[in-house]
Every structure is written in C-alpha cells, then in structure tokens.
Automatic annotation (TrEMBL):
Keywords: DNA damage, DNA repair, DNA replication, Hydrolase, Magnesium, Metal-binding, Mutator protein
SUPFAM superfamilies in the cross-refs: Nudix
Species of provenance: Micromonospora thermarum
Name of the molecule in the record: 8-oxo-dGTP diphosphatase
Residues annotated as domain Nudix hydrolase: 16-143
Reactions performed catalytically: 8-oxo-dGTP + H2O = 8-oxo-dGMP + diphosphate + H(+)
InterPro entries for the chain: MutT-like, Nudix_hydrolase, NUDIX_hydrolase-like_dom_sf, NUDIX_hydrolase_dom
Swiss-Prot/TrEMBL cofactor(s): Mg(2+)
Amino acid sequence: MRTERANDGGQVERREPKVIVGAAIIRDGRVLACARSAPPEVAGMWEFPGGKVEPGETETAALVRECAEELAVRVEIGARVGRNVRMAHGRSVLKVYAARLLHGDQPQPLEHSALRWLSATELDTVTWLPADAPIVAALRPLLGPAS
Ligand SMILES: Nc1nc2c([nH]c(=O)n2[C@H]2C[C@H](O)[C@@H](COP(=O)(O)OP(=O)(O)OP(=O)(O)O)O2)c(=O)[nH]1
C-alpha cells in the first residue's frame, strides 16, 4: 500500500505508509489490553502495546523494544493477528502480532493508565481505538473459553 502526492515539481511521489506494530500478548486465554494515557483525544481508549517501527528496524524488533519500554517485559513474537489496517488516510498501517511473555515477566503500566487481561467474552467491555476493531474480531477465536 502506498500513498501518493505531488511534490514541488508537480511529479507524483509514492511513499510507503508508516508501519505501526501492536502486540496481542496472550496468556492463559486472555489478551493484554492497555489504556492510552495520551493524547487527550484518545486517552482512556484501549490498544495493543506497540508503536512506530523505526527506520532500519524489523517489525519484530520494534515490538520487542516497545514491550520493554511500555511494559518492562520480554516477549516472543508469534503469528500475525488479523489484517493490515489502514489508518490516517493510508499514511500509516497497523499490523498486530500475537506474542507471549517470557521468563515470567509481569507487565507494568509504565506508559499506560491501566492494563487489563481480557478473555474472549470480555473483549467488548473496553473501548478500543477504532482501527483495532478488525484485529479484535480476529483475535476472539484465538482466545480460549473464559475461565
Ligand atoms: N500502539 C498502538 N497504536 C495504535 C493501535 N491502534 C491504533 O490506532 N494505534 C495508533 C495510535 C497512534 O496514532 C499510533 C501509534 O502511536 P504511538 O504513539 O503508540 O507510537 P510510538 O510509541 O512509536 O510513539 P512516539 O512516542 O514515537 O510518537 O497508532 C494499537 O493497537 N496499538
């Protein structure tokens, strides 16, 4: 997916969309949901931990870095969950991967206002960022029956 715009000379430039990665961290049939603390427009809405992939960084490395920065945990990244979700009129794309915690690490909300472990039946009890809707739908079957 690319976006196009005319440069000063009127020629069309094609730009790769900025990639945002998210980690669907699953433990015991529940996924970790994180409440954004900023900016004000989305504070209190829920998301997967993650962020922008830096230049030269792989998507997996970005997820490992973001999980360490945001939650102080080590993770193993697994399969993609759901499809690429276009955001910001195609200027960015959200890609979510399944992940699992390593070494018994416990997530800490270093940058979020709250963390919750949600079972399949609890996924709709929080307000997700709008772009996450198709990911949440694809995630539901990956979570086991509620316990
Ligand atoms: N991390 C994350 N971001 C998401 C999700 N859904 C969604 O629309 N986004 C949007 C919110 C933000 O506009 C953008 C990610 O920005 P961010 O602020 O988390 O990224 P970052 O950590 O690299 O931020 P920065 O401090 O470098 O600006 O993607 C999601 O599930 N997880």
